[in-house]
Amino acid sequence: MMTHAIILVAAIAAGAPTSRAAAIPPCALPATEIYQRVSPAVVSISAMSVNPFDRNDRIARFAGSGVIIDAAGLILTNSHVVFGRHAITVTLDDGNSVPGRLVGADPVFDLAVVRIPPPREGVHPAAKLGSSEALQVGQQVFAIGNPLGLAQTMTRGIISAINRLMPSVPYSLIEPLIQTDAAINPGNSGGPLVNECGEVIGITTARLPAAQNIGFAVPAALAIDVVPKLVRDGRVIRPWLGVQGLLVEPALKDLFRVPLVDGFLIEMVEPGSPAQIATLRGGHLEIMVAGRELLLGGDIITAIDGAPVRAPEELAKALAGMKVGGKIRLEIFREGNTFEVTCDVPERPPLPTDDPSLSALAPVEKRADAGGLARMVI
Known about the structure:
Blueprint: H1 2-14, H2 20-23, H3 31-38, E1 42-50, E2 59-70, E3 74-77, H4 79-82, E4 87-91, E5 97-99, E6 101-106, E7 111-115, E8 140-145, E9 153-164, E10 177-180, E11 192-194, E12 200-207, E13 215-219, H5 220-233, E14 243-247, H6 250-256, E15 264-269, H7 274-277, E16 285-289, E17 292-296, E18 300-304, E19 307-308, H8 312-320, E20 327-334, E21 337-344, E22 376-377
Antiparallel strand pairs: 1-2, 1-4, 2-3, 3-7, 4-5, 6-7, 8-9, 8-11, 9-10, 10-13, 11-12, 12-13, 14-15, 14-22, 15-18, 16-17, 18-19, 18-20, 20-21
């Protein structure tokens, strides 16, 4: 069954259009037909967690939506709906409630997979994951879910933007989200965002409560990539060096007018990380610029495995070579001297954002530091 799910998602990914024109839905089905096609695969999810340290309010309950993506009973939803919960109950379109089992979750991308038992007869209705690679602003979309406990609600809108990124998540771990004006409310989390062909092109994840008609969805392309990993490993496996900081780009040099070498400026070294074992140093001089805090004085990584890291694309290319279980060679600039260190690369432990008590953060446009400098985690 697990293999079947992986093959299913891989096949969808392989068949996705590659050109922008080809990815635009060629059909424009009536909203009524779209609802009839997709709604049988949309489920309501309720979950419960217990806080043993709170005597008066030990039990917390969570509600959201999900969409069946495999007839054998795989449900795609948001991580913040089901991750870390003690019990998961799934209510199907026909009103029947069944227990759900968490297969895997990734709180960074806010995606999770839940498995339910197969039906006594036949198979579960499943929605089709479509392509989100070439979405265009203005395309009509539909959100189906269970907002505020109201079962099977459909709202309509357009794609408002396609380049929205989550704040408070380091730049190296973020993925573009879909912004839509289709009404999204508490309880919609994990439900499908559907195009005019009745294909799931996103998973609704958050909204801006202080705004009107600003909601967000995780693109289907990301889900297609992540789901097989969640089914196979229960998580997304990421390499870990254990430093946080930002590139020393011209904006930073112009801002401080000090002699800085090109490279990755380490602001913080994570406790117990390979970087700490290698005695790398973080910043110690706190500078406030335009309301943004910067930590200066740390080591600067000037090259990774011999490749310079002077620009974002160079750093991204170097980091792509990091593999869990391997080693990485760093060229370090410190106090006018240059030296090399070699670090083991283990799997990244859970990030602070993996705390199951956290709900999805409301995405906004890419948040940068002073001078347009974006922090990264390695």
